[in-house]
Write a structure and sequence with these properties.
single chain, 259 residues, alpha/beta, Rossmann fold, two-stranded antiparallel sheet, 8 helices, 34% helix, globular, binds adenosine-5'-diphosphate, nucleotide-binding, ATP-dependent FeS chaperone activity, iron
Length: 259
């Protein structure tokens, strides 16, 4: 009678982590990692226990953006201890290889790294684990969507058509995989000239808002091209940790996602 219980598909959600939120984009270079890092810092500032898993394996910029470097420590049980900055515990392949070295891996190795980063990192108790996905609709997103009980995904796009077309594919994939879509974030839409105050739209105007409307998903934030955001990313001082307008924009985003 009864027989054997059905084997469960291996789950990839660390025990102490309440929620995993993925940050994706259709294309590279639209500011996905910048948003992931600053959102993580803003959530930590708001009192959440936050982790950041930089799963953008081919372009791991998370450590630089948080000012972290050096190999993480390993405890007696061989668990990796994620280093912490700005209240955010972070893990990234970028902490395992020298900066400037290429990661030359095939898909299965990538999946191995992802599993290791979820299963062999001592994340501890976290309210939110932010996952910075590789751009596009590849394996990492697929695996996480199927095995990690994602709370939802946030998609970052610039307003240009080429970025939006790819972002749409990402949203479509999330829908097909039943991953809740928190919404779209428009990045680098406006540029305000520091000399004359003129507002320009180098990547077009209104495209992400239109896209959000036509897809029926919320537009979560509109973030301008901002020198401090770029400098902060390069120098390991995330703009969300400061006090200015961008810090307030990220605080707003963090509170929308905490609702
Ligand atoms: P992705 O993760 O999509 O490849 P990144 O977050 O690495 O993109 O951003 C690419 C570059 O653009 C980085 O140098 C980053 O500092 C810069 N950047 C991103 N968002 C902004 C912004 N709103 N204003 C100015 N520079 C930005």
């Amino acid at each position: 009678i009864g027989g054997h219980p059905k084997p469960q598909a291996a789950k990839l959600k660390p025990a102490g982590v309440k929620q995993i939120i993925a940050v994706g984009s259709g294309k590279g270079g639209v500011g996905k990692s910048t948003v992931a890092v600053n959102l993580a810092v803003a959530l930590a500032k708001a009192g959440k226990r936050v982790g950041l898993l930089d799963a953008d394996i081919y372009g791991p910029s998370g450590p630089r953006m948080l000012g972290l470097s050096g190999k993480p420590q390993v405890d007696d049980d061989n668990m990796i201890l994620p280093p912490e900055a700005y209240g955010v515990r972070m893990m990234s392949i970028g902490l395992m290889v020298e900066e400037g070295q290429a990661v030359v891996w095939r898909g299965p190795m990538l999946m191995g790294a992802l599993q290791q980063f979820l299963g062999e990192v001592l994340w501890g108790e976290l309210d939110v684990l932010i996952v910075d996905l590789p751009p596009g609709t590849g394996d990492v997103f697929l695996t996480l969507a199927q095995k990690s009980e994602l709370a939802g995904i946030v998609m970052v796009s610039t307003p240009q058509d080429v970025a939006l077309i790819d972002a749409r594919k990402g949203i479509d994939m999330a829908k097909k995989l039943n991953v809740p879509i928190f919404g779209l974030i428009e990045n680098m839409a406006t540029y305000i000239c520091p000399n004359c105050g003129h507002e320009a739209h180098p990547f077009g105007h209104g495209g992400v808002a239109r896209e959000a409307k036509s897809l029926g998903v919320p537009l979560l934030a509109q973030l301008p091209i901002d020198l401090d955001t770029r400098l902060g990313g390069d120098e390991g001082r995330p703009v969300a940790a400061g006090e200015g307008a961008m810090a307030r924009a990220y605080a707003d985003l963090a509170s929308r996602l905490s609702e």
